[in-house]
C-alpha cells in the first residue's frame, strides 16, 4: 500500500538530498572525507550511548562517554562484536529511539549460514539509495543510460532486495521513467531456466552471487546456448573465481564489477573501471583489519575485516566482525577517486549440492532450511553422497524435535529418499582459513 501523498513527497525530497553529489563524493580530498567520517562517528556513538542498551552498558563499564569518540580510530575502544554473539542478543543492539517511517527486517547471513536479524530504519534505507550512486554512476556510464535501464537480480529468498524496492516504490513520487526496471530471479533455479528468462527480459545489467555467476557463465560457455549479453555483470555476495571473471570479460565481452556489501552494512565498498580493488566508503562504514591476536595490521597485510555502520540507526553495529579476510592497498587508484582501496575478498567457500538426478544447485537451498531455527549458534551440513547429508549442530543440547524438523525439511526439499543424520556436537572444525563452512559437498569435490 502506498504511503500518503505528503509522506511520499517528503521521502522523495529526502532521497534527492541524499543522492545529490554522491557520484562525485569519492573524488573529494582525503581531508574532506575524513571530516565527513568524523561527523558520522560522533553522531552515531552519541546515538548508541543514548538509545542502544549494549553500547550504553559497554561504554559505562569502560568509563567512556560520547565525548571520548572523535574519529573512526576511537571506535577501537568499543568491544568487537562476533556474529554468533550478536545473533543471540540482537535486541540489545536495537535503538529505543522513535523513528519516522518503518523498520525493515533484514536477515543477513545468506552466505555464511545462519540468518541474523538486522533492523534498518527507513531513513537509512533512503540514505543507502543515495550512496549507491557512487557505484551506480559507474554502471550507468557503461550501460550508457543513467535511468530506465534493465537489471536482472538473481537472488535468494532470504534476501531483502524486493522489500527494499517496495519501500522505494510505495514511499516516493519518482516517475516510472526515472527508475531501473528490475527482473527478480531465483539462484535456486538452474542456469538453463534462468538463461531463458534473461533472454526474454534482455537486461542491461545482471547482478547475483559470484558463485552463481560462475555456474551461469560456465554453463553458457560449455553449452553454447543463445544468450542476450548485458553490458555489465555485477556481483556482491560471494566471490567470483578469477578464471570466470576473465571468461566473462574476454569471451563474452562483458564488463565485470563487484561490491562489498552485507546485511549489517549495505555499502562497504565498490569496484571501479580500473579493476584494482574495492573503493571503501570509509565515511559510511569505516573498517579495521585485524590479525588473529586482534591487533590492527598495516596496509598491505591481510587480516580479518571489522566494520562499523555509521548509517543505520535502528540496529546499531559498531566494531562488527564480518568474517572476511582482506587487506588495505597502499597505492592509490588510477581512476582518481581518493577513497582508499581494499583488496578483493578471498570470499567464502561455498559448495554446490549435487542431487541424485545429477543436477547441481546453489548451497543457499540448504541454508534456507535453517532460516526458521533461531536457537542454533553454529551448524555444518556435509553432503556425503547425493542421497546422504550429515548435519552437525554446535552449542545446542540434544534436541530431538529440532532434529525431526530438519530431517523433514531436507526430505521436502531433496526428496523422501534422502537420508539426513543430525548430530549435536561440542564444536565444529574450522577451515584452514579459520572460517566455518556451513555447507560442504564431498560429492562435488569428488567430481572436480
Q: Can you lay out the helices and strands and say which pair or pack?
A:
Layout lengths: L4 H15 L10 H22 L1 H9 L21 H6 L14 E6 L7 E6 H10 L1 H11 L6 E6 L5 H11 L9 E6 L4 H11 L3 E4 L1 H14 L8 E4 L6 H10 L3 E6 L8 E3 L6 E3 L6 E4 L12 E5 L12 E7 L1 E2 L11 E2 L10 E2 L5 E2 L2 H4 L10 E8 L2 E7 L5 H15 L4 E7 L13 E3 H6 L1
Parallel strand pairs: 3-4, 3-5, 5-6, 6-7, 17-20, 18-19
Antiparallel strand pairs: 1-2, 7-8, 8-9, 9-14, 10-11, 11-12, 13-14, 15-16, 17-18
User: Can you identify the CATH superfamily of the largest domain?
Assistant: ANL, N-terminal domain
Number of alpha- plus pi-helical segments = 13
Task: Find the CATH topology of the largest domain.
Answer: Rossmann fold
Give the C-alpha Rg.
22 Å
Strand content bin: 15-25%
Label the CATH architecture of the largest domain: 3-Layer(aba) Sandwich
Share of helix, binned: 25-40%
Instruction: Tell me the total number of β-strands.
Output: 20
Average of the residue pLDDT scores: 89
Q: Which residues form runs of ≥5 with pLDDT under 50?
A: none
CATH class of the largest domain: Alpha Beta
**Overall spatial form:** globular
Cross-sheet strand order for the largest sheet: 4-3-5-6-7-8-9-14-13
Span between N and C termini?
A: 49 Å
Q: How would a textbook summarize the main sheet? A: 9 strands, mixed
Query: What count of structural domains?
Result: 3
What structural class do helix, strand and pairing data support? alpha/beta
